[in-house]
Amino acid sequence: MLQEIRERAQGWVAWAIIILISIPFAFWGIDSYFGGGAEPVVASVNGAEITERVFNQNVNRTRIQLRDRLGEAYDPALFDDQRIRQQVLERMIRETLLLEDSAAMGLRTSDQAIRAAILSEPAFQQDGAFSNAQYERVLRLQGLTPAAYEDSLRSELLLSQLPRAIRETAFVTDTLADRSASLVHQERIVAYARVPQSAFAQSVQPPTDEAVAAYYDGHQNQFATPEQIRVSYLLLNATDLARPDQLIDEGSLREQYQLKLDEFMAPEERKVRHILLSVSVDADQKMLDETRKRMQEVQQRITGGESFAAVAAEVSEDPGSAEQGGELGWVGRDALDPAFEQAVFAIEPETLSEPVRSRFGYHLVEVLEVRGGEPKPFEEVKEELIADLNSGSAEAAFFEQAEQLATLTYESPDSLIPAAETLGLEVQLSDWIDRSGGEGLFANPRVVDVAFSEEVLTLGNNSELLEPDPEVLQALVLRVAEHREPSVRPLDEVRDEIVTLLETQQAAEAAKAEAEAIVARIEGGQDLAAAAEGFEVVEAGQIGRVATEPPPEVTQLAFSLPSPAADAAGPRVGSTSASDSGDAYVVVVSEVKEGDPAQLDPAELEAEARMLTRALAAADVDAVLAAMQARARIERKPIVSDESF
Predict the structure, then answer these.
(1) Is the pTM of this model over 0.70?
(2) Contact 139, 121 (CB under 8 A)
(3) Which residue, 32, 132, 409, 582, has most beta carbons within 10 Å?
């Protein structure tokens, strides 16, 4: 039977089957053939979908930006994952709305604006000027094509147009500016008591097993470990290919010396002195003739034997050099008036020029000494030539080996060993890293993205050839060596942490309750010292909004309490919730003193007005965005915390 099937499969029946199978593949692809293909969506805005893939890319980019901004202070545990994901989604919704409304209003981003933004971007510049090679290199390292980047930039610039137009309409009246300045410079007379949580530590009851388990069940994210990988990699460095001990024959060095002769040429400089008789640029011919005649008389005095320095001190109208005998010191090309420079570099040393006219007037010029203008001797630059040739050979070897590395790791996608053995490289192993990155090479977002890509992480292949640092000739190929799925630490492992945390919470709640009791006693007629007996009481006196002496919680509460002048019942009093340290505070405000705009410096008032204008402008933009969202059809899917990050 099998033989019969085999024979039939070689005839027209086999070809018919192949054609029938090919039709759905050709039109819809293999995903559609198996019934898949649609991307998960996290939200839609007036029908425009925000896919889960793009959303996760933005979440990851936000985390990377936070890490880059905070540096060593960055601690992922301080940033609630669910909150970050919610904020990123809301930002993406606002941007989608802005793009839609901007397009509906006819706003556009011109090609000239795109070009100007690219030319002015520092990352694309070398030696202060735009470099197309640098532009393409930076984009390549980020996995972008120029067309994709320019499309993204066009959207980014379009996003800014409407908010910028709204902000530019904001203004502040003098009355409002004065009132704002009065509030900003307001001062209050404050006293406060500190109720420390440590005072209640002994009275805290150990939490029950049920309370510990309930906290653990309700705060699983707090004890989660993210998805992590360890990476095997090959790193090719151009510096490792340099051979400082390599012998280079004298003939090659001298040939290189001749090719680079211009680079070894010391610029010619001349030590100059001059005498100036000033004449304006727009002087008439009569004035020019008279001044030239006067300068010829000066020239005759010097050629007749008088000292140049003495004559310059007497008649020169250049206040900067006359007292120094007309000396200007060493000067090079492109640093002087063109006519004056031409005369300086045309005459021989110790030769007096004819009268020379520049835009400043008429000069007599004398060159005292000349230096430079000749190449450095071969022996002086020999070591530099050797280093250059070694560097050039190392660079050539690097590009040749980088190409081999890319080819070998592509041909053996499941191992780095063949490439390592061929090129004499060591297979290195990274520490554990998560999607927020690690240290050294793995602080590079591009490297991390590739390490966690489907091709490398899921399919288990070698990565493409990467350039981790655009400033250094390096080539990197990596693969995943070990993979840890996201997990939650077991309760037994974190029990002591939870017990300490719950006990601290109890002590903080007790401190807060005691602070509220003190407030009640003060409102009942006691003064602060009596009501807070046993606790530290501080008379802070008159403080401003930016005071540094009381704790920030005290200042914030003091300026949020109503003014006691509006109520004859006495001072205003309030208490804070537990601070970061767990302490609570009772704050009493006995008097409010308004700031006087008339006493402020006008420049300070102007700065206050600018700040207020910016604040009002931001509020206007927020109001417009809120109105857009109110009338838009927005559908949000529940956001699930992505533990893989």
Answers:
(1) no
(2) no
(3) 409
